[in-house]
Amino acid sequence: MNSSHKGKKFLIIFVLLLAVGLGGTYFYFAETEMPAIQVSPDKGYVGQKSPLAFSLTDKKSGLSKVRVEAVRQETSRTLLFRDFGQGVYEWRSQIQPGEKGLEDGEFVLRIIARDRSWKNLFKGNKAVREFRFVMDTQVPQVNLETFRHNLNQGGAALVGFRTSEPVQKAGVTIGDYFYPAYRESDKHYLCLFAFPYNLDPGQDEPLVQVVDRAGNVKKSGFNYHVNTRAFEQTVINIPDRFLQTKMSHFQDLYPNVTDKLELFLKVNQDLRRANRKRLTEIGLETSPKPLWSGRFLRQKGARKSGFASRRTYLYQGQEIDRQTHLGVDIASLARASVMAANSGRVVFSDWLGIYGQAVIIDHGLGLQTLYAHLSERRSGKGDLVEKGEIIGRTGATGLAGGDHLHFAVLVSGLPVNPVEWWDQNWVENNIARKIRRLKK
Ligand SMILES: [Zn+2]
Q1: pLDDT in tens, 183-208
Q2: pLDDT tens-digit profile of 367-402?
Q3: Cα separation of 48 and 110, whole Å?
Q4: Cα(35) to centroid of ligand 1, in Å?
Q5: What kind of fold does domain 261-305+326-439 have according to CATH?
Q6: C-alpha 354 – ligand 1 centre gap (Å)
Q7: Distance from the alpha carbon of residue 31 to the mean position of ligand 1, in angstroms
Q8: Rounded to the nearest whole angstrom, what is the distance from the C-alpha of residue 407 to the centroid of ligand 1?
Q9: Does domain 29-135 have CATH number 2.60.40.730?
Q10: What share of residues in the chain are helix, strand, coil (percent, to 5)?
Protein backbone atom coordinates (compact mmCIF):
# COMPACT_ATOMS: atom_id res chain seq x y z
CA MET A 1 0.00 0.00 0.00
CA ASN A 2 2.72 2.37 1.14
CA SER A 3 5.03 1.68 -1.76
CA SER A 4 2.29 2.07 -4.39
CA HIS A 5 1.27 5.35 -2.72
CA LYS A 6 4.90 6.50 -2.87
CA GLY A 7 5.12 5.45 -6.52
CA LYS A 8 2.07 7.54 -7.40
CA LYS A 9 3.53 10.52 -5.58
CA PHE A 10 6.79 10.21 -7.57
CA LEU A 11 4.86 9.84 -10.78
CA ILE A 12 2.87 13.04 -10.08
CA ILE A 13 6.09 14.95 -9.29
CA PHE A 14 7.77 13.52 -12.39
CA VAL A 15 4.82 14.51 -14.62
CA LEU A 16 4.73 17.97 -13.03
CA LEU A 17 8.47 18.48 -13.59
CA LEU A 18 8.16 17.24 -17.15
CA ALA A 19 5.25 19.61 -17.76
CA VAL A 20 7.19 22.53 -16.27
CA GLY A 21 10.23 21.53 -18.33
CA LEU A 22 8.33 21.17 -21.58
CA GLY A 23 6.34 24.28 -20.85
CA GLY A 24 9.52 26.20 -20.14
CA THR A 25 11.11 24.87 -23.28
CA TYR A 26 8.00 25.71 -25.26
CA PHE A 27 7.83 29.22 -23.84
CA TYR A 28 11.54 29.65 -24.45
CA PHE A 29 11.21 28.73 -28.12
CA ALA A 30 7.77 30.29 -28.55
CA GLU A 31 9.05 33.87 -28.51
CA THR A 32 6.53 36.42 -29.75
CA GLU A 33 8.69 38.88 -31.66
CA MET A 34 7.46 39.20 -35.26
CA PRO A 35 9.79 39.41 -38.27
CA ALA A 36 10.51 43.02 -39.28
CA ILE A 37 9.70 43.92 -42.91
CA GLN A 38 11.01 46.89 -44.86
CA VAL A 39 10.62 47.93 -48.50
CA SER A 40 12.38 50.73 -50.32
CA PRO A 41 10.82 52.76 -51.85
CA ASP A 42 7.68 52.12 -49.83
CA LYS A 43 5.17 53.95 -52.03
CA GLY A 44 4.77 55.78 -55.33
CA TYR A 45 5.20 54.97 -58.99
CA VAL A 46 6.88 51.83 -60.27
CA GLY A 47 8.17 51.70 -63.82
CA GLN A 48 9.49 49.07 -66.18
CA LYS A 49 12.89 49.20 -64.51
CA SER A 50 12.17 50.27 -60.94
CA PRO A 51 13.48 47.75 -58.42
CA LEU A 52 11.78 47.38 -55.04
CA ALA A 53 14.28 46.36 -52.37
CA PHE A 54 13.22 44.27 -49.33
CA SER A 55 14.86 43.63 -46.07
CA LEU A 56 13.55 41.09 -43.57
CA THR A 57 14.97 40.51 -40.12
CA ASP A 58 14.12 38.21 -37.24
CA LYS A 59 16.78 38.38 -34.56
CA LYS A 60 15.33 35.78 -32.15
CA SER A 61 14.24 32.56 -33.88
CA GLY A 62 15.20 33.40 -37.46
CA LEU A 63 13.18 33.60 -40.66
CA SER A 64 11.08 30.69 -41.87
CA LYS A 65 9.10 31.76 -44.94
CA VAL A 66 8.28 34.85 -46.95
CA ARG A 67 5.66 35.47 -49.59
CA VAL A 68 5.46 38.64 -51.65
CA GLU A 69 2.16 39.25 -53.41
CA ALA A 70 0.69 41.88 -55.68
CA VAL A 71 -2.91 42.42 -54.65
CA ARG A 72 -5.40 44.10 -56.93
CA GLN A 73 -9.19 44.03 -56.48
CA GLU A 74 -9.26 40.98 -54.21
CA THR A 75 -7.04 38.89 -56.46
CA SER A 76 -3.50 38.30 -55.42
CA ARG A 77 -0.56 37.10 -57.39
CA THR A 78 2.63 35.71 -55.88
CA LEU A 79 5.70 37.60 -57.06
CA LEU A 80 8.14 35.77 -54.85
CA PHE A 81 8.14 32.89 -52.34
CA ARG A 82 11.01 31.71 -50.21
CA ASP A 83 11.32 28.88 -47.67
CA PHE A 84 14.38 29.48 -45.50
CA GLY A 85 16.59 26.91 -43.81
CA GLN A 86 17.80 27.14 -40.22
CA GLY A 87 19.71 30.16 -39.03
CA VAL A 88 18.65 32.91 -41.47
CA TYR A 89 18.21 36.01 -39.33
CA GLU A 90 18.44 38.60 -42.06
CA TRP A 91 17.55 38.51 -45.75
CA ARG A 92 17.71 41.12 -48.49
CA SER A 93 16.44 40.87 -52.02
CA GLN A 94 14.78 42.88 -54.72
CA ILE A 95 12.16 42.43 -57.42
CA GLN A 96 11.24 44.40 -60.50
CA PRO A 97 7.44 44.31 -60.69
CA GLY A 98 7.76 45.48 -64.32
CA GLU A 99 9.45 42.20 -65.21
CA LYS A 100 6.68 40.15 -63.59
CA GLY A 101 4.17 41.23 -66.24
CA LEU A 102 2.06 43.21 -63.79
CA GLU A 103 -0.42 45.44 -65.61
CA ASP A 104 -0.49 49.22 -65.18
CA GLY A 105 -2.56 50.67 -62.34
CA GLU A 106 -2.70 50.73 -58.56
CA PHE A 107 -1.71 47.67 -56.58
CA VAL A 108 -0.90 46.69 -53.03
CA LEU A 109 2.36 44.92 -52.37
CA ARG A 110 1.69 42.51 -49.51
CA ILE A 111 4.55 40.84 -47.73
CA ILE A 112 3.85 37.94 -45.39
CA ALA A 113 6.77 36.66 -43.33
CA ARG A 114 6.95 33.94 -40.67
CA ASP A 115 9.70 33.17 -38.22
CA ARG A 116 10.80 29.86 -36.64
CA SER A 117 9.19 30.52 -33.27
CA TRP A 118 7.12 27.63 -31.75
CA LYS A 119 4.28 30.10 -31.29
CA ASN A 120 0.88 29.39 -32.87
CA LEU A 121 1.34 25.62 -32.70
CA PHE A 122 4.82 25.77 -34.24
CA LYS A 123 3.67 27.87 -37.23
CA GLY A 124 5.69 30.82 -35.99
CA ASN A 125 4.97 34.53 -35.65
CA LYS A 126 3.39 35.97 -38.74
CA ALA A 127 4.04 39.53 -39.90
CA VAL A 128 2.04 41.12 -42.70
CA ARG A 129 2.78 44.53 -44.22
CA GLU A 130 1.13 46.24 -47.15
CA PHE A 131 2.52 48.99 -49.39
CA ARG A 132 0.63 50.97 -52.03
CA PHE A 133 2.12 51.50 -55.49
CA VAL A 134 1.07 52.53 -58.97
CA MET A 135 2.44 50.44 -61.81
CA ASP A 136 3.33 52.62 -64.79
CA THR A 137 5.17 51.06 -67.71
CA GLN A 138 4.06 53.69 -70.23
CA VAL A 139 7.00 55.63 -71.65
CA PRO A 140 6.20 59.38 -71.63
CA GLN A 141 5.67 60.92 -75.07
CA VAL A 142 7.27 64.15 -76.25
CA ASN A 143 5.41 66.46 -78.64
CA LEU A 144 7.62 69.15 -80.10
CA GLU A 145 6.27 72.67 -80.35
CA THR A 146 9.26 74.25 -82.09
CA PHE A 147 10.38 72.96 -85.47
CA ARG A 148 13.53 74.76 -86.54
CA HIS A 149 16.68 74.67 -84.46
CA ASN A 150 19.67 76.26 -86.15
CA LEU A 151 22.76 76.39 -84.00
CA ASN A 152 26.31 77.53 -84.24
CA GLN A 153 28.97 75.42 -82.57
CA GLY A 154 29.39 77.16 -79.20
CA GLY A 155 25.98 78.81 -79.60
CA ALA A 156 22.48 78.47 -78.19
CA ALA A 157 18.95 77.51 -79.31
CA LEU A 158 15.53 77.03 -77.77
CA VAL A 159 13.27 73.99 -77.98
CA GLY A 160 9.68 73.88 -76.73
CA PHE A 161 7.73 70.68 -76.13
CA ARG A 162 4.83 69.09 -74.29
CA THR A 163 4.84 65.78 -72.47
CA SER A 164 2.00 63.26 -72.43
CA GLU A 165 2.12 62.97 -68.63
CA PRO A 166 3.76 64.78 -65.69
CA VAL A 167 7.52 64.16 -65.65
CA GLN A 168 10.16 64.46 -62.93
CA LYS A 169 12.98 65.43 -65.28
CA ALA A 170 13.02 67.09 -68.70
CA GLY A 171 15.70 68.69 -70.83
CA VAL A 172 18.12 68.33 -73.71
CA THR A 173 21.20 66.08 -73.68
CA ILE A 174 24.21 66.40 -75.95
CA GLY A 175 27.12 64.09 -75.16
CA ASP A 176 27.66 64.36 -71.39
CA TYR A 177 25.91 67.74 -71.18
CA PHE A 178 22.39 68.10 -69.82
CA TYR A 179 20.33 71.29 -70.07
CA PRO A 180 17.25 71.28 -67.83
CA ALA A 181 13.95 72.37 -69.36
CA TYR A 182 11.65 74.62 -67.35
CA ARG A 183 7.90 74.13 -67.06
CA GLU A 184 5.96 77.13 -68.31
CA SER A 185 2.49 75.70 -67.78
CA ASP A 186 0.86 72.30 -67.46
CA LYS A 187 3.12 69.75 -69.25
CA HIS A 188 4.57 72.54 -71.40
CA TYR A 189 8.35 72.99 -71.30
CA LEU A 190 10.94 75.42 -72.63
CA CYS A 191 14.57 74.37 -72.88
CA LEU A 192 17.44 76.67 -73.67
CA PHE A 193 20.40 74.55 -74.72
CA ALA A 194 23.75 75.04 -76.40
CA PHE A 195 25.90 73.10 -78.79
CA PRO A 196 29.12 72.99 -76.74
CA TYR A 197 32.15 74.70 -78.30
CA ASN A 198 34.19 71.52 -77.72
CA LEU A 199 31.87 68.90 -79.26
CA ASP A 200 31.81 67.70 -82.86
CA PRO A 201 28.73 68.83 -84.83
CA GLY A 202 29.06 65.76 -87.02
CA GLN A 203 29.02 63.35 -84.12
CA ASP A 204 27.14 64.62 -81.08
CA GLU A 205 23.38 64.83 -81.46
CA PRO A 206 21.01 66.84 -79.25
CA LEU A 207 18.05 64.84 -77.89
CA VAL A 208 15.06 65.85 -75.77
CA GLN A 209 15.06 63.59 -72.72
CA VAL A 210 12.16 63.19 -70.30
CA VAL A 211 11.79 60.89 -67.30
CA ASP A 212 8.36 60.25 -65.76
CA ARG A 213 7.46 59.67 -62.09
CA ALA A 214 8.00 55.94 -62.50
CA GLY A 215 11.47 56.42 -64.00
CA ASN A 216 10.45 55.57 -67.60
CA VAL A 217 12.78 57.41 -69.99
CA LYS A 218 12.03 58.81 -73.43
CA LYS A 219 14.74 60.22 -75.67
CA SER A 220 13.47 62.06 -78.67
CA GLY A 221 15.41 63.42 -81.63
CA PHE A 222 14.39 66.68 -83.31
CA ASN A 223 15.14 68.65 -86.41
CA TYR A 224 18.35 70.68 -86.05
CA HIS A 225 21.35 72.02 -87.88
CA VAL A 226 24.74 72.95 -86.41
CA ASN A 227 27.18 75.25 -88.18
CA THR A 228 30.78 74.31 -87.46
CA ARG A 229 32.85 77.26 -86.26
CA ALA A 230 36.58 77.80 -86.43
CA PHE A 231 37.74 79.42 -83.22
CA GLU A 232 40.76 81.70 -83.12
CA GLN A 233 44.14 80.50 -81.89
CA THR A 234 46.17 82.78 -79.66
CA VAL A 235 49.53 82.64 -77.97
CA ILE A 236 50.01 84.15 -74.54
CA ASN A 237 53.45 84.83 -73.14
CA ILE A 238 53.70 84.59 -69.38
CA PRO A 239 56.38 87.05 -68.23
CA ASP A 240 58.14 86.76 -64.86
CA ARG A 241 56.63 90.12 -63.93
CA PHE A 242 53.12 88.58 -64.22
CA LEU A 243 54.11 85.61 -62.04
CA GLN A 244 55.66 87.93 -59.46
CA THR A 245 52.66 90.24 -59.13
CA LYS A 246 49.76 87.83 -59.68
CA MET A 247 50.66 84.58 -58.00
CA SER A 248 50.73 85.98 -54.46
CA HIS A 249 46.91 86.35 -54.72
CA PHE A 250 46.57 82.58 -55.15
CA GLN A 251 49.28 81.43 -52.72
CA ASP A 252 46.75 80.80 -49.90
CA LEU A 253 44.92 78.22 -52.04
CA TYR A 254 48.08 76.18 -52.65
CA PRO A 255 50.33 76.81 -49.61
CA ASN A 256 52.67 73.92 -50.48
CA VAL A 257 53.45 75.13 -53.98
CA THR A 258 56.42 77.48 -53.71
CA ASP A 259 57.51 77.67 -57.35
CA LYS A 260 55.71 80.58 -59.07
CA LEU A 261 55.40 78.84 -62.44
CA GLU A 262 54.09 75.65 -60.84
CA LEU A 263 51.58 77.78 -58.93
CA PHE A 264 50.47 79.43 -62.18
CA LEU A 265 49.80 76.01 -63.71
CA LYS A 266 47.80 74.93 -60.64
CA VAL A 267 45.66 78.06 -60.97
CA ASN A 268 45.31 77.88 -64.74
CA GLN A 269 44.33 74.19 -64.68
CA ASP A 270 42.92 73.04 -61.30
CA LEU A 271 41.38 76.30 -60.13
CA ARG A 272 39.95 77.00 -63.61
CA ARG A 273 38.30 73.55 -63.58
CA ALA A 274 36.90 74.08 -60.06
CA ASN A 275 35.54 77.51 -61.04
CA ARG A 276 33.88 76.04 -64.12
CA LYS A 277 32.21 73.40 -61.94
CA ARG A 278 30.93 76.16 -59.67
CA LEU A 279 29.41 77.92 -62.70
CA THR A 280 27.50 74.73 -63.51
CA GLU A 281 26.12 74.62 -59.97
CA ILE A 282 25.14 78.30 -60.06
CA GLY A 283 23.47 77.62 -63.44
CA LEU A 284 20.79 75.61 -61.64
CA GLU A 285 19.86 78.61 -59.46
CA THR A 286 17.60 80.05 -62.10
CA SER A 287 14.12 81.44 -62.58
CA PRO A 288 11.79 79.02 -64.43
CA LYS A 289 10.43 82.05 -66.32
CA PRO A 290 12.46 84.40 -68.56
CA LEU A 291 13.44 87.60 -66.71
CA TRP A 292 15.14 89.22 -69.71
CA SER A 293 13.78 90.94 -72.80
CA GLY A 294 15.30 91.89 -76.14
CA ARG A 295 18.95 91.78 -76.99
CA PHE A 296 21.81 91.85 -74.46
CA LEU A 297 23.89 95.02 -74.12
CA ARG A 298 27.55 94.98 -75.03
CA GLN A 299 29.94 96.80 -72.74
CA LYS A 300 31.63 99.71 -74.57
CA GLY A 301 35.27 99.12 -75.37
CA ALA A 302 37.64 97.22 -77.62
CA ARG A 303 37.43 93.45 -77.98
CA LYS A 304 40.70 92.02 -76.70
CA SER A 305 39.96 88.31 -76.86
CA GLY A 306 37.13 86.33 -78.42
CA PHE A 307 34.91 83.47 -77.35
CA ALA A 308 36.42 79.96 -77.36
CA SER A 309 39.82 81.15 -78.56
CA ARG A 310 42.33 78.34 -78.12
CA ARG A 311 45.15 79.72 -76.02
CA THR A 312 48.66 78.38 -75.96
CA TYR A 313 50.69 79.61 -72.99
CA LEU A 314 54.42 80.17 -73.37
CA TYR A 315 57.03 80.74 -70.68
CA GLN A 316 60.51 81.73 -71.87
CA GLY A 317 59.55 80.55 -75.36
CA GLN A 318 58.43 77.08 -74.20
CA GLU A 319 54.83 75.85 -74.33
CA ILE A 320 53.60 75.27 -70.78
CA ASP A 321 49.80 74.99 -71.09
CA ARG A 322 46.72 75.11 -73.34
CA GLN A 323 43.26 76.38 -72.34
CA THR A 324 40.12 77.67 -74.02
CA HIS A 325 38.98 81.24 -73.29
CA LEU A 326 35.26 81.04 -72.59
CA GLY A 327 34.15 84.65 -72.74
CA VAL A 328 34.85 87.92 -74.50
CA ASP A 329 37.41 90.36 -73.09
CA ILE A 330 36.50 94.03 -73.47
CA ALA A 331 38.79 96.87 -72.41
CA SER A 332 38.30 100.64 -72.31
CA LEU A 333 39.35 102.95 -69.49
CA ALA A 334 40.54 101.55 -66.19
CA ARG A 335 37.74 101.22 -63.63
CA ALA A 336 35.07 101.69 -66.30
CA SER A 337 31.43 101.29 -65.25
CA VAL A 338 30.04 97.80 -65.89
CA MET A 339 26.36 97.49 -66.75
CA ALA A 340 23.93 94.60 -66.51
CA ALA A 341 23.56 93.24 -70.05
CA ASN A 342 19.90 92.50 -69.43
CA SER A 343 17.42 92.44 -66.55
CA GLY A 344 17.55 89.65 -64.02
CA ARG A 345 18.49 88.69 -60.49
CA VAL A 346 22.03 88.62 -59.07
CA VAL A 347 22.79 85.01 -58.05
CA PHE A 348 26.49 85.49 -57.26
CA SER A 349 28.55 88.46 -56.09
CA ASP A 350 31.85 87.42 -54.56
CA TRP A 351 35.42 86.31 -55.24
CA LEU A 352 35.49 83.46 -57.79
CA GLY A 353 39.04 82.18 -58.26
CA ILE A 354 40.49 82.96 -61.70
CA TYR A 355 37.58 85.35 -62.31
CA GLY A 356 38.54 87.49 -59.30
CA GLN A 357 35.74 89.75 -58.07
CA ALA A 358 32.75 88.57 -60.04
CA VAL A 359 29.00 89.11 -60.46
CA ILE A 360 26.62 86.61 -62.06
CA ILE A 361 23.12 87.69 -63.12
CA ASP A 362 20.40 85.10 -63.70
CA HIS A 363 18.03 85.89 -66.59
CA GLY A 364 15.85 82.76 -66.23
CA LEU A 365 15.61 79.38 -68.06
CA GLY A 366 19.26 78.70 -67.10
CA LEU A 367 20.53 81.80 -68.96
CA GLN A 368 23.10 83.80 -66.97
CA THR A 369 25.77 86.45 -67.55
CA LEU A 370 29.15 86.62 -65.80
CA TYR A 371 31.14 89.83 -65.22
CA ALA A 372 34.70 89.06 -64.09
CA HIS A 373 37.96 90.70 -62.92
CA LEU A 374 35.99 93.60 -61.34
CA SER A 375 37.67 96.16 -59.09
CA GLU A 376 34.35 96.95 -57.45
CA ARG A 377 30.99 95.19 -57.09
CA ARG A 378 27.85 97.25 -56.56
CA SER A 379 25.27 94.46 -56.55
CA GLY A 380 24.72 91.82 -53.93
CA LYS A 381 23.24 88.34 -54.19
CA GLY A 382 19.46 88.49 -54.53
CA ASP A 383 19.34 92.00 -56.04
CA LEU A 384 17.01 92.51 -58.98
CA VAL A 385 18.76 94.51 -61.70
CA GLU A 386 17.49 96.35 -64.76
CA LYS A 387 19.05 96.20 -68.20
CA GLY A 388 21.85 98.83 -68.32
CA GLU A 389 22.06 99.25 -64.54
CA ILE A 390 25.60 99.78 -63.22
CA ILE A 391 26.65 96.72 -61.23
CA GLY A 392 30.38 97.46 -60.69
CA ARG A 393 33.65 98.65 -62.21
CA THR A 394 36.21 96.90 -64.38
CA GLY A 395 39.51 95.82 -62.88
CA ALA A 396 42.25 93.20 -63.06
CA THR A 397 41.35 90.91 -60.14
CA GLY A 398 41.80 87.15 -60.52
CA LEU A 399 43.93 85.85 -63.38
CA ALA A 400 43.89 89.08 -65.42
CA GLY A 401 46.96 90.79 -66.83
CA GLY A 402 45.38 94.24 -67.11
CA ASP A 403 42.16 96.18 -66.49
CA HIS A 404 39.31 94.73 -68.62
CA LEU A 405 35.91 93.09 -68.39
CA HIS A 406 35.67 89.35 -68.99
CA PHE A 407 32.06 88.91 -70.10
CA ALA A 408 30.47 85.48 -70.45
CA VAL A 409 26.97 84.27 -71.33
CA LEU A 410 26.15 80.91 -69.77
CA VAL A 411 23.44 78.37 -70.61
CA SER A 412 22.95 76.09 -67.60
CA GLY A 413 26.55 76.87 -66.61
CA LEU A 414 28.11 76.28 -70.04
CA PRO A 415 29.67 79.40 -71.63
CA VAL A 416 28.23 80.22 -75.06
CA ASN A 417 29.15 82.80 -77.66
CA PRO A 418 27.95 86.23 -76.36
CA VAL A 419 27.94 87.67 -79.91
CA GLU A 420 24.60 85.93 -80.59
CA TRP A 421 22.96 87.54 -77.55
CA TRP A 422 24.15 91.02 -78.57
CA ASP A 423 22.37 90.63 -81.93
CA GLN A 424 18.73 91.81 -81.89
CA ASN A 425 17.82 89.73 -84.97
CA TRP A 426 19.39 86.56 -83.64
CA VAL A 427 17.61 86.89 -80.27
CA GLU A 428 14.30 87.66 -81.98
CA ASN A 429 14.43 84.86 -84.57
CA ASN A 430 15.92 82.08 -82.48
CA ILE A 431 14.62 82.70 -78.97
CA ALA A 432 12.14 85.53 -78.32
CA ARG A 433 9.67 84.76 -81.12
CA LYS A 434 9.46 81.10 -80.06
CA ILE A 435 8.79 82.04 -76.42
CA ARG A 436 6.06 84.52 -77.43
CA ARG A 437 4.36 82.03 -79.71
CA LEU A 438 4.40 79.27 -77.09
CA LYS A 439 2.93 81.54 -74.44
CA LYS A 440 -0.26 81.97 -76.47
ZN1 LIG B 1 38.67 86.80 -70.46
Answers
A1: 988 779 999 999 999 999 988 999 99
A2: 999 999 999 999 999 999 999 999 999 999 999 999
A3: 20
A4: 64
A5: Glucose Permease (Domain IIA) (2.70.70)
A6: 10
A7: 74
A8: 7
A9: yes
A10: 20, 40, 35
